[in-house]
Amino acid sequence: MLPKDTFKGKTVLITGGATGLGFSMGRMLLELGANLCIMSRKMEALEAAKESLQKCGDGHIWIHPCDVRNAEEVEKAIGYFIKESGDVDALINNAAGNFIAPTASLSHNGFDTVLDIVLKGSKNCTLTLGKHWIASGKGSKTVLNIVTTYASTGSAFVVPSAMAKAGVLAMTRSLAVEWAKYGIRQVAIAPGPFPTEGAWERLFPGGLDKKLGVINQIPLKRVGDHRELANLASYLLSDFAAYINGEVITIDGGEWLKGAGEMNFLLQLTDEQWASLKRS
Ligand code: HXC
Ligand code: NAP
Q1: How far apart are CA 203 and CA 115, in angstroms?
Q2: Residues ≥6 apart with Cβ < 8 Å to 202
Q3: Lower Cβ count inside 10 Å, N or C end of the chain?
Q4: pLDDT single digits (tens) 129-180
Q5: Which three-class secondary structure state does DSSP give residue 62?
């Protein structure tokens, strides 16, 4: 969608970028000329991702192990990336933890684990890079937060994730105003279902998606394609989106609206039923 050299000379840091949607966004950014910095907990996964991504573009790829919950580890990893790359131009807060569970069954540690990865992790990365960017005074920087549609609606059975993503969305909107004067934009994407190993094994264990017909919840009757999300992320990070600040873009095939519309349940009526209703 974008010109080949859209990100030439730019460096993008992706948390959780060795797998799933983070990997797919990284691949497209590399194809568009970017350098990549990737951090997550598992060094093996980072090394495998680097090897595979190297075939997708000429940009540099730096990796560093890091648990985003730990502010000291985040500062160390980001310090390494800045030193190696010269500077980081954009941050994608993509790392997440999640699982389905009845809320009353959760331990405090189970609840906090998801809150800490998503909310504290996104804060740790944003604050560390933001302070550096403000001190350097260069401007033209972007933070892209990957949230979910239920950051706005809330959702049963993923309450820690919904709370944390709502907090990340609040951070997006708050800093959009506070940091704009430093040339730092904030944007967010709220994806619906995009199949990844990490999400599917935790949200739909034992093939729950097929058993419950998840796809029927989506007006477009299909899940998302990774390249669709990567295209949107690339656009939001690019200069073509330079006037978009503080917005969250939903990409879910209309899924959340289907759950929300008062009369949407009428979708189950057949043409014959509509005809007989008109007659009566
Ligand atoms: C209840 C659980 C649990 C589960 C873990 N815990 N899994 N509780 N149900 N399924 C509890 C544990 O019992 C423990 O509490 C606490 O959580 C910490 O567990 P650990 O295994 O020690 O944590 P850790 O090794 O840090 O792993 C974090 C994790 C794990 C979140 C639990 O799943 C992970 O690493 N996830 C990363 C990737 C991921 O989740 N990707 C999916 C993102 S999808 P106790 O009290 O026993 O000590 C996504 C999609 C959103 O966000 C929208 C989709 C449409
Ligand atoms: P994923 O492959 O499981 O990605 C999560 C990544 O986060 C992993 O690479 C993981 O790497 C990293 N991570 C987890 N805990 C971490 C920690 N403490 N420190 C550093 N890194 C950590 O899942 P995904 O589906 O691609 O999800 C990517 C993003 O999209 C998430 O923000 C998710 O909430 C969002 N999302 C996904 C969907 C979907 O349908 N897939 C829908 C809505 C929103 P390590 O294990 O190596 O740490």
Answers
A1: 16
A2: 98, 99, 100
A3: C
A4: 999 999 999 999 999 999 999 999 999 999 999 999 999 999 999 999 999 9
A5: strand
Is residue 182 part of the annotated active site? The answer reads no
In what helix (H) or strand (E) does residue 76 lie, and over which residues does it extend?
A: helix 71-85
| Ligand 1 center from residue 116 Cα (angstroms) | 11
pTM of the model: 0.98
Our answer on whether the CB atom of 96 is closer than 6 Å to any ligand 1 atom is yes
Taken in order of first residue, the domains within the chain and their CATH numbers are 11-279 (3.40.50.720)
Nearest CA residue ID for atom 55, ligand 1? 193
Q: Which two tokens stand for residue 164?
A: 């944390």
Give how far the C-alpha of residue 76 lies from the chain's centroid of Cα atoms, to the nearest Å. 23
**Measured in Å, how far apart are the chain's first and last C-alpha atoms?**
51
Ligand 2: distance of its center to the CA of 201 in Å? Answer: 12
Site of tokens 């990567």: 230
A 10 A CB-CB count for 43 gives 12
Angle between helices 159-178 and 121-136 (to 10 degrees): 10
Nearest ligand, measured from the Cα of 255: 1
